[in-house]
Amino acid sequence: MKGHEGIYYDERYQRGYRSELSGYEKARHRALNHFIRRVARIKQVQTMLDYGSGSGLFLDLWKELFPAAALCCTDISGVALKQLEGKYSHYDVICGLVKDGQAPFADSMFDLVVSVEVMEHVQDIDVFLADIHRLLKPGGYFLWTTPCANALSIEHIYSLFSAKIEKTADGYRRWQWEEKTHVRRLKSREAKDIVTRAGFGPVDFRFRAHFFSFFCTYILSPLSRGRLKKTWEKLMFLDYALFRRLPNGASMIGGATKV
Predict the structure, then answer these.
(1) Cα distance between residue 64 and residue 194, in whole Å
(2) Could you tell me the mean pLDDT of each successive run of 10 residues in the chain, 259 residues long?
């Protein structure tokens, strides 16, 4: 029987959840491109897995960066994977459903596992990381993005002064106003500790959403539908472009090697 989480996400994807790149997602797309090329400097990839791929929001980026790699995708939503197969039938992609905390692929199968905006959703982060560790070859690379709870981003300041930061069941925190399916928001040092404990290292970080992303999303959102849409989208990327080494971002990109 499918778990309630899978059923919930099936329903969301049937309603069009994360079906296209928004301005915020486009900024993340560009930041990931830079991180992979210039920070992680990942080049030789024969096999890669998008863990928590949804309906394939970033598949075009993976194929652009790693055109020769065998690409697999996994998610807890069968609906999302069917949408992915329909939209990207021109790619040779193997899809499999996550069940009981494990993706249906062999141990030490992948050179690269990417997981975009998943770490904040999983109920048991240790089980999630253990599965990624299992799937990677020795020396394989794990790349992730997730919201960040570091101090002094505009999101943190807003949440702090409006008393909208709450503790989570596993001892972390979340912003009360964010996506309800976010069960935690990690600080970068917490993410480093968890990932290191799972058998990865050393860990590299870059940061996004210091100021401009919040400002564009909540103040300048009318521009996202007008003639200034492209300018609005470029503003969303400015946090990463200007401040990616400053830790006061509300979003992080992290990468580490399987030890």
Answers:
(1) 30
(2) 77 93 92 98 95 97 97 98 97 96 98 98 97 98 98 97 96 95 97 98 97 89 80 92 98 97
Q: List all residues 6 or more positions away from 168 whose beta carbon is below 8 Å from its beta carbon.
A: 174, 183, 184
Distances (CA, A) of 152 to 67, 180, 233, 245, 248: 39, 22, 23, 14, 5
Query: Beta partners for 114?
Result: 50, 143
- Residue-level pLDDT at 1: 36
* The pLDDT value given to residue 58: 98
User: What pTM, to 2 d.p., does this model score?
Assistant: 0.95
**Residue owning tokens 């979003």:** 251
Read off the amino acid at residue 246.
L
CB-based contacts of 74-78 (< 8 A; 24+ apart in sequence): 74/49, 74/50, 74/98, 74/103, 74/104, 74/105, 75/9, 76/3, 76/5, 76/6, 76/9, 76/52, 77/6, 77/9, 77/10, 77/12, 77/13, 78/2, 78/6, 78/10
CA–chain centroid gap for 38, Å, is 18
Q: How far, in whole angstroms, is CA 178 from its chain's centroid?
A: 15
- Taken as a whole, the chain contains a residue count of 259
Q: In what order do the strands lie in the sheet with 93-97?
A: 93-97, 70-75, 47-51, 110-116, 136-147, 251-258, 200-208
Tell me which residue of 234, 188, 227, 229 sits closest to 29, measured CA to CA. 234
Sign of CA dihedral 192, 195, 198, 200: negative
Which domains can be identified in the chain, with CATH numbers? 4-258 (3.40.50.150)
Q: Tokens 């993410």 sit at which residue?
A: 191
